[in-house]
Amino acid sequence: MQIHNLSRQNSILNSFISEIRNETIQKDSMRFRRNIERVGEILGYEMSKVLNYKTTNIKTPLGDCDINLATNDIVLCSILRAGVPLHNGLLNYFDTAENAFISAYRHHKQNPETFEIIVEYLACPSLENKTLILIDPMLATGQSMVATFEALKPFGTPKEIHLISVIGAQEGVDFVNKYFDNNVHLWIAAIDKNLNDKGYIIPGLGDAGDLAFGKKLQK
Fold it and tell me: 0.85 cut: is pTM over it?
């Protein structure tokens, strides 16, 4: 897997990451969602540099102009619910993309420190020979990303696969790196070193879904 860690180079992205991590600023859920969306726009822009392009002639009011335009048939697939703001950021840039949505959550059994990933709802177009962009804001253990991709397999074989995350733990990055082959790209804004005993990224930012949409009742 090819890993593109945008934090290795300073940019305006640092400002948005600092705000979604800041325990005071992140309490403003509207601002939190917008910052995640802006991170998605930046990740999408960087990812667009490796897409396929074809020269197209455009007629302007004053003449003709040749410009290279992306030719990829893109499907954006986000993991509900935390993935929605990040999905919107990518959709802002990839106007004609098809969209897929999947629910994947941690099901804790008797031990709160162990869990399995449960996939329930899934809506997806054909993925055959398309460019799949799989979106999960928090790449903690990496199990959700892999479980989601496994659930998508009946919908066809993508021509290209890109993974998009805001913050990941090194353990999660290593997990998906072992699962996906070298043709897959991971685009991520920051990688933290550790997971705690419950599988949450440290220092991370907390629960992205709760921060974006409010706390949920636990089953």
Answer: yes
